[in-house]
Design brief:
heterodimer, A: 232 residues, alpha/beta, Rossmann fold, seven-stranded mixed sheet, 8 strands, 21% strand, B: alpha+beta, five-stranded mixed sheet
Chain lengths: 232, 197
């Protein structure tokens, strides 16, 4: 019995519902903070943000504090949203952040079509079965010149590279594309940022790096909408 | 007096009680682990019900996290199952064994000494990791069925600071509620996974 308890010392019988801050949420929040610094506080200023899979709402709260004009914190789980709402009130950001239940896929996404300047999210791609609906949601709610800031963090048993690569291949078939520093959306919003993955490296300590590496690393990707038009 | 007699041999409860102290004008939150041992012998049915009522009351108090309960009842009746379920404390019972007195003494020693001996080491780890949590650091996690867990998830709230802005740069978020019984959401396909014990 004790070996069992010692294997999971912090999870068993804690008697609380742990809708918690995940490591990926912390990392995303730090990255948003760093991006704000790197762009002279312009990236979120007066922008419309939509967070997918907001959980407790940490990243949404961060973008609101960093200057966003409106933030829509979404999650499929209504109980989670209640907690996010409580956190929004706790931080006095109810005038900026709204919460809503959002099921991924075209059905719900069309209600928010082309409303997001920036979509943020982390740890959303672990289930390959949801890649298509997630990509459809991103593609639908993103403005034509908007960007997606997506971060994925490894976990034991998950391959970050494979997970993200699989999602990106699906995303490219639903009207999204990976942006580079040469793209106009990158230049407009990320300005002089050369590499978001380099930024990611700069915001973790060596001890945290060890934790992240032990679980397969972390990756961040910036997506935009594909441009459709006649050539020539 | 009720004719039915039960012997509730041992109930061990470990609770975490958060409290605040003032240190240089800044409130600091600490968590104190308290071990409560209740030994009741030869009590009546009604007393047994009272014991469970008290246990249930403790378990449902805000900020009180029941960590471990061992209950021994020297009777083969299923009555205690009904009582446990009726008081909504079945999720907290770690082990319920029915043994003879000699075995019980061994059980008592092994269960009361071992956790106490290991609790100080565990507490040291917890304190160190919880301090990391309080600083908003990324800490290691353990896989649990359907999800992952880490010590930071046991905290009621966490605070993070944004460094790119100077004013109003602190974010405090609550984590979860006390309404559930060991449930965790996330990385589970959107479902809540019951972490059975």
């Amino acid at each position: 019995m004790y070996s069992y308890i010692h294997s999971y010392p912090y999870t068993l019988a804690t008697c609380i519902s742990t809708v918690a801050v995940w490591n990926s949420g912390i990392l995303l929040t730090r990255l948003l903070d760093k991006l704000n610094e790197s762009t002279n506080q312009s990236i979120f200023k007066d922008k419309s943000i939509i967070e997918l899979g907001c959980g407790v709402g940490l990243a949404s709260l961060a973008t609101a504090k960093l200057g966003a004009s409106t933030v829509l914190a979404t999650d499929a789980n209504t109980e989670v949203l209640e907690l996010a709402q409580r956190n929004i009130q706790q931080n006095n950001l109810s005038s900026i952040i709204k919460t809503t239940a959002l099921q991924w896929g075209l059905m719900d996404a069309t209600e928010y079509e082309s409303t997001a300047d920036i979509i943020i999210g982390s740890d959303l791609t672990y289930n390959s079965g949801s890649w298509v609906v997630l990509a459809e949601t991103m593609s639908t709610i993103l403005k034509s010149d908007g960007i997606v800031i997506y971060l994925t963090l490894g976990h034991s048993g998950f391959n970050v590279g494979g997970e993200l690569g699989g999602f990106l291949s699906v995303a490219e078939n639903t009207g999204l594309r990976v942006l580079t520093k040469d793209d106009i959306e990158w230049k407009e919003k990320l300005r002089d940022v050369q590499s978001v993955n380099d930024l990611l490296t700069s915001i973790v300590t060596s001890e945290e790096r060890a934790v992240i590496d032990a679980n397969g690393g972390a990756r961040v990707v910036i997506l935009g909408k594909k441009k459709f038009g006649r050539k020539g | 007096m009720d004719k039915i007699f039960y012997e509730v041999s041992l109930i061990i409860i470990r609770v975490y009680l958060p409290f605040e102290v003032m240190c240089s004008d800044l409130p600091m939150k600490w968590q104190c682990e308290i071990l409560i041992v209740i030994v009741v012998a030869l009590i009546t049915l009604s007393s047994l019900v009272d014991a469970f009522t008290a246990l249930s009351s403790l378990a449902t108090q805000q900020n009180c996290r029941l960590k471990f309960v061992l209950l021994q009842i020297n009777d083969d009746s299923t009555f205690e199952d009904d009582v446990i379920k009726s008081h909504n404390i079945d999720g907290y019972i770690q082990k319920r064994c029915k043994r003879r007195r000699r075995d019980f003494i061994i059980s008592l020693l092994s269960t009361s000494v071992t956790p106490l001996a290991t609790s100080s080491a565990a507490a040291a780890i917890t304190t160190e990791e919880e301090q990391s949590c309080q600083r908003g650091e990324i800490v290691s996690e353990s896989p649990v069925p359907g999800a992952y867990s880490q010590v930071c998830m046991n905290l009621d709230e966490r605070t993070f600071t944004l460094s790119s802005i100077e004013e109003d740069n602190s974010i405090t978020v609550y984590q979860g509620t006390n309404s559930g019984a060991g449930e965790v959401a996330g990385r589970t396909g959107g479902k809540k996974i019951k972490m059975s014990i």
